[in-house]
Amino acid sequence: MGTQFTVDPSQKLVYVTFDDQTTVAEFLGYPSRVRSHPDFDPSFSEIIDCSRVTGNNFSVDAIRELARCESVFSPTSMHVIIAPKDHVYGLARMGQVYGDQTKPNTVVVRLLLPSPSA
After folding, report:
1. Structural domain contains residue 38
2. pLDDT per residue over 92-101, tens digit each?
3. CA within 20 to 30 Å of 86's CA: 20, 25, 96, 107, which one?
């Protein structure tokens, strides 16, 4: 399956999933693919779902490179990384620290709960 993403203009959201089939090239190329999507707007927020990542797909160097590259999103966009597994959570937190200048509004969570009904 690899890297999959959906751009939802009605929610102003990009939802991406990575899994064990995701290559480093896909991982590093994901931002340019999103930028070229016809419905993408830099003001959208982003949810990165790493729930299906069970192995150690990405090196520290790849995490650092993606985190430090210029974001295709606005500086005010939110970035939520879902990382339920310990090693993936650790890598995501590392990316959060490396990306503090390029993606300042990043949070890493173990799971994403549905919002309470109104």
Report:
1. yes
2. 999 999 999 9
3. 25
